[in-house]
């Protein structure tokens, strides 16, 4: 689920006062809490940053965002003039000294950008350790992972609970996202970081390109747990509030896996909703869902693994998050209904730009990119 450019307007939360803050957020003369934000311009990150900037204690935060360009940084400052930014990439080794330095200054890190690339994580953790060595206070890392880790278990279709530590630990180190997860947990076990891993499944609105006919891989009967992006953002902020208030029972490390879900969606249901939306737009003649051909799978998914994901079944139970007080607001029906708005936006965008991006970032992308051609 890694961040793509956001197109939703996010609803803001009403927060209560924070008591007994870990970082003395309510002390008038206390230094501001240094927050490092990764993924600020991304699909998920944009909503979380909006909530953070509208937090009742926002005046007591000093937020620094890592962005890919000065233009993106200046765009963020238009919404929050006090926000600071550093230019760098999580995927450029030359920028790792920047990431390490940012870690040295951070009390709390919101990591919403990437869940799989270990080198930048290593640089960040090195900086966070230096922060701990200098302050004797373990900084906080709230990191986006994903229930894709469960695809690599012996029973991905089973109802995996985040409260079952044996099950959580049984995920093999070769699983999706697991390399970064394990590095973050090791830092927690070493005592110099407190790690919290937010694990969403399918997130509403991952699509990034319109199509001409809805399609599925295989029979489309595979199903994944699902959650709305706003509910994921809400969980980030709930964790943040619980952490800084020193609330009891907020697990971290191995007990810091928070699976998120509010029902499940089959690939057939997703493709059907997209097909109906395209017909209503006049962009397709039939809402019929048909299987991808072998050639289409090769063209749009690029790899056997990617295509296998969107024909798979993966289930989980978000019990730890709910025990903490997370109450998702959006049902599966809300998620399905949202595909119409998403497809309409993307179709109009493609028409305005005269092109469709055929580079898939997520499994659902290929469902939206099939036969994507403005001249077709």
Automatic annotation (TrEMBL):
GO cellular component terms, semicolon-separated: cytoplasm
GO terms, molecular function: aldehyde dehydrogenase (NAD+) activity; NAD binding
Species: Rhodofomes roseus
Cited InterPro entries: NAD(P)-bd_dom_sf, NAD(P)-dependent_oxidoreduct, Semialdehyde_DH_NAD-bd
Protein name according to UniProt: Semialdehyde dehydrogenase NAD-binding domain-containing protein
SUPFAM superfamilies: NAD(P)-binding Rossmann-fold domains
SMART domains recorded: Semialdhyde_dh
Gene Ontology BP term (one): alpha-amino acid biosynthetic process
Superkingdom classification of source: Eukaryota
Domain Semialdehyde dehydrogenase NAD-binding: 34-147
């Amino acid at each position: 689920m890694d961040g793509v450019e956001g197109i939703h307007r996010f609803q803001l939360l009403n927060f209560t006062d924070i008591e007994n803050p870990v970082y003395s957020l309510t002390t008038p003369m206390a230094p501001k809490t240094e927050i490092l934000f990764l993924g600020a311009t991304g699909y998920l990150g944009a909503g979380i940053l909006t909530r953070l900037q509208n937090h009742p204690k926002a005046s007591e935060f000093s937020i620094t965002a890592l962005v890919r360009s000065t233009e993106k940084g200046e765009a963020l400052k238009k919404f929050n003039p006090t926000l600071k930014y550093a230019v760098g990439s999580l995927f450029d080794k030359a920028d790792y000294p920047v990431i390490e330095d940012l870690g040295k200054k951070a009390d709390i890190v919101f990591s919403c950008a990437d869940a799989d690339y270990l080198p930048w994580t290593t640089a960040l953790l090195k900086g966070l350790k230096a922060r701990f060595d200098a302050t004797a206070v373990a900084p906080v890392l709230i990191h986006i992972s994903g229930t894709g880790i469960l695809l690599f278990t012996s029973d991905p279709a089973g109802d995996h609970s985040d409260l079952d530590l044996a099950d959580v630990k049984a995920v093999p180190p070769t699983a999706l996202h697991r390399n970064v997860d394990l590095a973050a947990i090791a830092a927690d076990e070493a005592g110099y970081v407190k790690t919290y891993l937010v694990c969403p499944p399918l997130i509403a609105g991952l699509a990034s390109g319109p199509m001409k006919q809805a399609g599925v891989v295989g029979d489309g009967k595979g199903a994944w747990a699902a959650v709305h992006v706003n509910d994921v953002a809400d969980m980030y902020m709930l964790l943040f509030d619980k952490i800084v208030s020193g609330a009891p029972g907020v697990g971290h490390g191995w007990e810091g896996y928070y699976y998120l879900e509010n029902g499940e969606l089959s690939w057939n249901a997703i493709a059907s909703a997209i097909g109906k939306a395209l017909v209503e737009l006049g962009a397709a003649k039939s809402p019929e869902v048909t299987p991808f051909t072998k050639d289409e799978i090769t063209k749009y998914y690029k790899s056997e693994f990617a295509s296998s994901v969107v024909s798979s079944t993966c289930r989980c139970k978000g019990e730890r998050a709910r025990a903490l007080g997370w109450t998702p607001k959006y049902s599966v029906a809300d998620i399905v209904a949202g595909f119409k708005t998403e497809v309409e936006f993307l179709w109009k965008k493609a028409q305005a730009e005269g092109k469709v991006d055929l580079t898939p970032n997520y499994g659902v992308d290929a469902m939206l990119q099939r036969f994507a051609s403005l001249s077709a």
